[in-house]
Amino acid sequence: MSVAIHAEHDLSGANTLGLPCLAEHFAAPRDLGELREALTEGRVQGWPLTLLGGGSNLILPQRLPGLVIQPAMDRWWVEAGAGDTVRVTAEAGVGWHDLVMALAERGLWGTENLALIPGHCGAAPIQNIGAYGVELGEVLESVHLLHLDDGHEAVLRAGECGFGYRDSIFKRELSGRVVIVRLVLRLSRTPRPRLDYGDLASRVVKKPTPMAVARAVCAVRREKLPDPAELSNAGSFFHNPVVPAELAQRLLDEYPALPHFSQADGRVKLAAAWLIDQCGLKGWREGHFGVHDRQALVLVHFGGGSAVELLAFAERIIERVQARFGVTLQREPRLIAP
Ligand code: EPU
């Protein structure tokens, strides 16, 4: 066997929330052959399987029994597509932000608004990463995956991925059944800047280029979002709630300043950060966790805490928002049960 399987592997530095976690067994396969070997070994040994991407959207328990696999295949390449389009194939272990910057450097349009999102390419379709008016689903051509039951490979076109706001088939029907091995993106050489979100347009002062937009997005994010290398966090800890139009209207009658966005299905998306902020919780700290003082949707870990404490802290926020607005916030990071 060429893939290394490590026993009692420390994952504390491999999750951006900085939660202490020890994996019973751990493998980081560098190609498809090694991935298959690790999966087979896990099956033979009867180990429960946990798949890890960049660890930026996870809540890990103190001990993870079984086998944790973190795909480390990290090649990517560019091919000419139809017309002015370009196809970019990226393996699961490629760092998302590094890829975005490399594509912006080449003057390719499509992913620049998604700069500085932490994590690996393989995890990007799971929650359909999105920021500053663009979602992955809009630039994705297909997802290549491996089925865990019999190891067969399959390709899903973007239209088959069931993408929605922070949602996809990988969170639902295919949850726990597949490993994403690579993505194919479709980018464009023709300028198509997307600057309609917030004050993005005013930050791209010169002629927009993919790099100028990516840099502006990085600047906005750095102003509001804590860098996990300095302060542990998993980005947005809650989804923006999508509520029935009647509830949104009742809330808007009482709180006209509530940021809201009408959805195609008639429902209305509300800004969870605003709801938390209005409850006076921005900057609130208790024990080892806190609400970030510049973005109320981000929970931060000051060190020394655990998943159990974090979930209890989040629960108190959910209760406060529920009591004041009648809206139930849903957690965004995936909870890995021991
Ligand atoms: N707001 C507040 N208080 C705050 C922060 C924001 O009242 O502390 C208000 C803002 O004034 C604004 C609204 O809430 O009107 C929305 O805020 P923002 O533009 O910062 O975006 P968001 O809805 O809070 C979402 C994503 C982010 C993404 C940004 C930009 C979710 C759960 N989060 O946040 O994604 O970067 O939009 O597109 O959809 C992530 O997923 O980790 C993430 C950071």
Task: Describe this entry's structure for a reader.
The protein has seven helices and 20 strands. By secondary structure, it is of the alpha+beta class. Bound molecules: uridine-diphosphate-2(N-acetylglucosaminyl) butyric acid. Residues 131-132, 197-198, 224-225, 235-236, 239-240, 259, 271, 273-274, 277, 282, 295-297, 332 line the site of uridine-diphosphate-2(N-acetylglucosaminyl) butyric acid.
What's the helix and strand layout?
Blueprint: E1 6-10, E2 22-27, H1 32-45, E3 49-51, E4 58-59, E5 63-69, E6 76-80, E7 85-91, H2 96-105, E8 130-131, E9 134-135, E10 140-147, E11 153-157, E12 178-188, H3 200-203, H4 210-224, E13 232-236, E14 242-243, H5 245-254, E15 260-262, E16 268-270, H6 272-278, E17 285-286, E18 289-291, E19 298-301, H7 307-325, E20 334-335
Parallel strand pairs: 2-5, 3-5, 4-20
Antiparallel strand pairs: 1-2, 6-7, 7-12, 8-9, 10-11, 10-12, 13-19, 14-16, 15-16, 17-18, 18-19
Bound molecules: uridine-diphosphate-2(N-acetylglucosaminyl) butyric acid.
Uridine-diphosphate-2(N-acetylglucosaminyl) butyric acid (EPU) binds next to strand 13 and helix 6.
